[in-house]
Amino acid sequence: MGKSVPRLTRPYDPEELDRLVRDRGAVILEQAYSPQDCETFLRQVDEFLAEHPEEADYAAGSVLGYFQGSTTSTLHSLVGRIDCAPKMVLQSDIVGCARRVLSPLSETVLLTIAEYMAREPGAHRQELHCDTYSWRHVPGGENPIALTVMAAMSDFTAANGATWVVLDSHGGPPDAAPPDWSEAVQAEMSQGDALLFRADLFHAGGANTTASDVRRIFSMGFQVAWLRQVENSTLSVPPAKAAELPPELRELLGYSHELVLGLYKGGHPANALKQA
Ligand SMILES: O=C(O)CCC(=O)C(=O)O
Predict the structure, then answer these.
(1) How high is the mean pLDDT of the chain?
(2) Are 111 and 124 in the same domain?
(3) Can you tell me which atom of ligand 1 is nearest the CA of 203?
(4) Which of 219, 230, 231 to probe ligand 1 with, by most ligand atoms within 8 A of CB?
(5) Are residues 144 and 40 part of one domain?
(6) 142 band by pLDDT with thresholds 50, 70 and 90
(7) Does the CB atom of residue 65 touch ligand 1 within 6 A?
(8) Quick one: 38 and 131 in the same domain?
(9) Of 126, 112, 97, which is closest to residue 29 (Cα–Cα)?
(10) What's the pLDDT score for residue 69?
(11) Which residues pair with 222 in a beta bridge?
(12) Residue whose CA lies nearest to ligand 1 atom number 7
């Protein structure tokens, strides 16, 4: 049995937070979101899906939907479609940690993805994997290139499939074999807690062995700005919509540049917003 995931309570100590993420690979921030934030998020996602039933079909048939399987429902591109998504993404302790921990390798930080996942009864345990797979040509190392967040919008329990993580399993070559399951531990969390981990840490969604307890997740990622994002944010949040969002969120979506990467007509991509 592996070691349990370190936990921090409010007010989180930024140095301890960064150390745990960088050196141990994962940490749980207790009550990163209030119960009210979680309920608002779930209500808005449910309302959106009820009004747009075609979205569930699209998600189920998508690249990520195929990976997740039929016992997981997802909704992507939350920013611009779900009213509270900006607040959820801009959780300042999490974004602050991402900026600091990614700063050795990038001056700018991007949002990799912001998604909703519901893991239903019958969901299988995933294989241990790293979220850096799509960037597997980047060598591993001491400094992370991306972080992943799994925030519990409903309680994560051992029975409903709380995320498994293998502490200290990060930093190896991208094609490293997964560690043994005996080293993995489950991140059981109450509604509002958030698991923050290096994207090169081995982890997996657990099996949901309950009869009716759907595990509901708000998941997002942050990355160095010189890698391509999973979610094509400037398509899902085009300039006219981005113009209405907080500047920090626009930057995270990609209306920003890292040196000469991401320029718009040779200049700052924010110039596209002025014309929108
Ligand atoms: O379900 C979880 O808690 C983790 C999900 C995950 O790692 C994935 O879908 O890639």
Answers:
(1) 96
(2) yes
(3) 7
(4) 219
(5) yes
(6) very high
(7) no
(8) yes
(9) 97
(10) 86
(11) 111, 147
(12) 204
